[in-house]
Amino acid sequence: MNLCKYRDSFGKVGTGVHSLRLFNIAVVDTLLTLLLAYIINSYLKSNLLVIFFLLIILSIAIHKAFCVETTLTKMFFSF
Fold first, then answer.
1. Are β-strands 25-26 and 21-22 bridged in parallel, bridged antiparallel, or unpaired?
2. pTM to 2 decimals?
3. Residue 44 contacts by C-beta under 8 Å, 6 or more apart in sequence?
């Protein structure tokens, strides 16, 4: 299944809310991922950092599936 045609569904890389960056990582995306980790943690009563790390890994896989090149996907798949 090719999901590349939907790559701009949530906006183009580096534009709009994705333009606010720190070390070339989208700040808004990272904060929303942290918020989701906090919400999941409030239900599971688990380790917040582990949940955040797992969500980051999931986001890397999703970005790769949609053919979106991000700083993290480049770092993760450069090996």
1. antiparallel
2. 0.82
3. 51
